[in-house]
Write a structure and sequence with these properties.
The chain has about 400 residues and is an alpha/beta fold. It folds into 2 domains: about 240 residues, 3-Layer(aba) Sandwich (Rossmann fold), CATH 3.40.50; about 160 residues, LarA, C-terminal domain (2-enoyl-CoA Hydratase, Chain A, domain 1, Alpha-Beta Complex), CATH 3.90.226.30. The chain contains 16 helices and 19 strands. A hairpin with a 7-residue loop joins strand 9 and strand 10. Helix 7 runs antiparallel to helix 9 and helix 7 packs parallel to helix 15. It is globular. The two termini are about 40 Å apart. The model has no long low-confidence stretch (mean pLDDT about 95).
Length: about 400
């Protein structure tokens, strides 16, 4: 990995420059400590400064002890490299880079949206001479595959691009876009916004083993779009599992790195494509006790609904952040809503077996199971019965094999 990092500066263009490294928070798997040490060792001797910004999007900030675990180094061991949280809740965090025009948004979205979008980004990205994106690539429910310029938007951006891009993904639906290779409409919007960034940029995109996140299948360096494209192609072969038939019941076991439904719902997104019509996903996560630390009140207000619940009655949700509505539809999955009758018909059932009380689950439109009554092992080896157990859900996408 040290060689990969050094290769990014083969021409010595970082000599005397200030370098900012964008990294994920700890809801993404990967050997970040080893990768970050390699980047530090390769760049610190030649650069004027090398610092790290955690691309939180709108996730809660990471406290010092979690940063130490996440980077595998104490503050003293990281020196002179500093680590910063993306302070998305502070208006002074952001610099305005310009606008993606309504006409451009309409062209990118195929007419699904038409509005001007101001591009505001953490001003640290602008203040540094070079920005290195250092992060993994997985199938993703909003953009197709994660990584690349997504570390800017939503990683270190303000709400405008976050809300528009996530709502565009919701309009297309997670069911359609997740695991789609190439430049999806959401990826095109993100790339367009990233084209306004004045700083020099590069990437080290990596692909990890689904069984052992400390094992790398590939590291791709260079220009962000090119490095991401190569990593996404590899991820499509590593992180997509094909099955021959849909399942009536899926027990999705959510690992501890997802500590709220906002991120733990990846255990729904990645499995929805292999659930039969009328089937059920049971999200098993006894450690999760809330929908979202940041967005929980909005979620309790609007609940979880299919896309058309929001799309066909927009006046009722004009004050709701579209990123929250997008999350709602991704969790609830595909389905229909008839405004004439008020009938909503989700394609599948989503049941939470978590630490969230039954009354709260049912109030937002989801099912409930007491996690103490779930015997995980009783779901194993029952694929012929239409039952699937996924022991570590959230990063591998399950799809039906065609033909």
């Amino acid at each position: 990995m040290r060689q990969h990092a050094a290769d990014l500066d083969a021409a010595g263009r970082l000599a005397g420059k200030r370098v900012l490294v964008l990294v994920p928070d700890d809801t993404r798997s990967g050997p970040l400590p080893a990768l970050l040490r390699a980047v530090r060792d390769a760049f610190v001797p030649r650069a004027a400064a090398v610092d790290v910004l955690i691309a939180l999007g709108t996730h809660p900030p990471m406290p010092p002890e979690r940063i130490d675990r996440h980077t595998g180094m104490t503050e003293a061991e990281r020196a002179p490299m500093r680590v910063f949280n993306h302070e998305w809740e502070r208006p002074e965090t952001f610099a305005s880079l310009g606008t993606v025009t309504a006409d451009e948004v309409a062209e990118i979205s195929g007419g699904l949206l038409r509005e001007d979008v101001e591009v505001r980004l953490n001003r640290m990205v602008v203040d540094y001479d070079h920005v290195l994106v250092l992060g993994p690539v997985f199938p993703h429910e909003v953009v197709g595959f994660s990584g690349g310029n997504k570390y800017f938007f939503p990683g270190v951006s303000a709400r405008e691009v976050i809300d528009v891009s996530h709502w565009l993904g919701a309009l297309i639906t997670s069911y359609e876009i997740i695991g789609t290779l190439g430049t999806t409409p959401v990826r095109a919007l993100i790339n367009k916004a990233a084209s306004l960034i004045p700083s020099d940029r590069s990437a080290l995109c990596y692909v990890v083993s689904p069984k052992d996140p400390t094992t790398l299948h590939g590291v791709f360096g260079g220009g962000i779009e090119e490095a991401w494209e190569r990593a996404a192609e590899l991820s499509s072969r590593i992180h997509v599992a094909y099955v021959d038939r849909p399942f009536d019941t899926v027990l999705s076991v959510v690992p501890a790195m997802y500590d709220e439904i906002w991120v733990g719902a990846k255990g729904v997104y990645k499995l929805e494509p292999v659930v039969a019509d009328g089937g059920e996903i049971i999200l098993y996560a006894p450690h999760i006790t809330e929908f979202s630390e940041v967005h929980g009140e909005w979620i309790k207000k609007i609940g979880f609904h299919v896309r058309d619940w929001f799309r066909l009655q927009p006046e009722k949700f004009a004050d709701v952040p579209r990123g929250v509505m997008a999350h709602s539809t991704h969790v609830r999955g595909a389905g229909t809503y008839d405004p004439a009758t008020g009938e909503e018909r989700p394609r599948i059932r989503v049941t939470l077996a978590t630490g969230i009380p039954e009354a709260e689950c049912r109030a937002v439109g989801l099912g409930y199971r007491d996690p103490a009554t779930v015997d995980v092992e009783s779901y194993a080896g029952r694929e012929d019965e239409g039952v699937l157990l996924v022991r570590k859900a959230g990063e591998t996408l399950y799809r039906l094999r065609k033909g």
